[in-house]
Amino acid sequence: MNPFPFTDDPTKRYHSWNYALRQEFGDKIFKVPVDGGFDCPNRDGTVAHGGCTFCSVSGSGDTIVAPSAPLPQQFVQEIDFMHQKWPHVEQYIVYFQNFTNTHAPLAVIKERFEQVVNLPGVVGLSVGTRPDCLPPDVVDYLAELNQRLYLWVELGLQTTFETTSDVINRAHDYQTYVDAVARLRKHDIKVCTHLINGLPGESLAMMRENVRRTLLDSDIQGIKLHLLHLMRNTKMLRDYAEGQLHLMKKTDYISVICDQLEMIPPGIIIHRLTGDAPGDSLVGPMWSLKKWEVLNAIDAELVRRDSWQGKFAVRSEQDVTNRTAL
User: Fold this and answer.
1) How far is the C-alpha of 294 from the C-alpha of 28, rounded, in Å?
2) In angstroms, how far is the first alpha carbon of the chain from the final one?
3) Are 34 and 64 contacting, i.e. CB atoms less than 8 angstroms apart?
4) Environment class of residue 59 by beta-carbon count within 10 Å: exposed (0-12), middle (13-18) or buried (19+)?
5) How far is 100 from 37, CA to CA, in rounded Å?
6) Eight-class DSSP state of 57
7) How far apart, in Å, are the Cα atoms of 268 and each of 15, 80, 132, 210, 224?
8) Checking DSSP bridges between strand 150-158 and strand 222-227, what pairing results, if any?
9) Are 270 and 226 in contact (CB under 8 A)?
10) Where residue 180 falls among pLDDT bands split at 50, 70, 90?
11) pLDDT tens digits, residue range 240-282?
């Protein structure tokens, strides 16, 4: 018997994104990635040059079907592709994925977002961004959108350790992230934090600590746990060549993911437990290309441990309620 309450799948012992969307909308939802044409402040010289060392030239949106097309056309082509597998889905969340999607003047952000929010079937918006790109006028606009549709802001944190942040050229500190979450939560905007397992120099203990700190220091509603994919044409290849980066073993990744899940309160939505990378650009770990094998192994390890998300949660649901009320 599955002891975890936030699931309708006997094989899942964590609060999956698919389950959360079905509870919210009553049916399967497509999350439709688009390229909004934004840049990043650590690429264009605003705070740094060169971008994060793990980032590819497409800014994490390597699998978008038509990234150079107008936004409404990108949307149509993406859902046409998805409908080949799931023909009956009729509701969509548009995901502004590539680079930093609030790194522009408010007028530009509004012009691009408004192109998609009223497209047929769109019920939500997910905005990928950085914590240092949320000025007051942008947060106010996001608060307005939050009243109009289902909204998530996805904050790239990646690590809580300043030493690692410097190595990967993140170009913002941890406190900037904590402050950004607080500003968003004042408007009841849902926040999903991104963390990467396997960054240069980080031990398994540090990966666990990244989750612990994030949960204790910020009122988040979702989390994405990524495996570091070493990609061609990234600056991180130099770290790998110089022996400063060791790619994670599958057994270590599955173990640390389960450790992290045990720490996360059950009400927090797990948006991702691993990522996708195009095989022709991936240097490693190559085992990550078999995504479903990884996910199935995580399920099996939780069963083996007789464990589940939140079994050893580092904060209670009441802590979240109290913090939100402040």
Assistant:
1) 23
2) 38
3) yes
4) buried
5) 9
6) T
7) 7, 31, 24, 16, 11
8) unpaired
9) no
10) very high
11) 999 889 999 999 999 999 999 999 999 999 999 998 888 889 9
